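Recap from last week: sequence in, structure out.
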Amino acid sequence: MIPTRRLAAPGGFMKKSAEELGRLSRIAWNAEALGTPTKPYTLLNFEDASTVAGCKTMADRAVGGFSTASLDFEPADPASNTPAHARFHGNISTKLPANWRVERTGYAAFRNQDRGFWLFGRLYWDVDPYAYLALRIKSDGRRYTVNIQTDSIIETDIHQHRLYTRHHRVFGQTPMQQALNAKSDENAEIAESQRSRDIPDGLSDYPPESTILSSSSSATTAGITGWETVLLPFTSFVRTNHGYVMEPQTSLLRSRVKSIGIGLTDRIEGPFDLRIHKIWATNGMGEADIEEERRICGTDALPLDVGLQSGWTDQQRGKETTSQVGATPKEKGLKGLKSEWDD
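Predicted structure tokens:
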């Protein structure tokens, strides 16, 4: 078969097939499929302008609304250690169009376009061996949502998780203001009302410690660069359809991920500005990642080897049961995974 210009073009069928075959060959050669992978799997790297160009934006203008959304490529700035990245920005408007069928507006989003085909059919991301979706971002504090679409039975199903960041605001409050007002009756009532409405932890306005592992654990907005890396557990994503939580909940089909994107549906009028450097699947921060992490995120950088180990949770961190006293403590994170496999 002689490849046509379209098939041989950058990002075309032949290029995608070669890249996917190369990736699978490396996994087989390094025997990574036999254990839990300790290396990250890059999904969207916005240092590449073509990745930005390969995404699509959406806003309520499609139904006559007045919100705007753009995704632009921003070149690197070596002077400030700012990497090349994508800038998701625009303006949210809740103004209704002159159309009686439209009852609600005020949203904007972006996602990657269909990844197309390769030699063995439609191209998906297989993130099944990984525990977290990692995003390196610089946020303005608005309540963004991470959206993952898979090859599910119901095509319009989306799994979502709130993008909690160091600057995450609730009802117009910064994390510092939330901390100062944490003991107020009003805040307690708001938090309790969310629990009583059975809002899943992954979509709660208040970051639940049980579902988030990121550099956003501090309530302050201190930091040098403004960049931070957030790890969202795949198991905490919530199945939704057209913005509504669906029952029964089904787990994310991690072996057949079609698209990943970020949306803003807080319906708060005004501008928004989110910077995204990279999105990847991971089991933690390895030595190969930590230099870049510290260079870009500064004091907000995640520590080395923050990651997953069977049975390890924040509540168990630093604790030992009576039966473990005197036993050799197991390493946590990626080192623990590697040592288990080496043994």
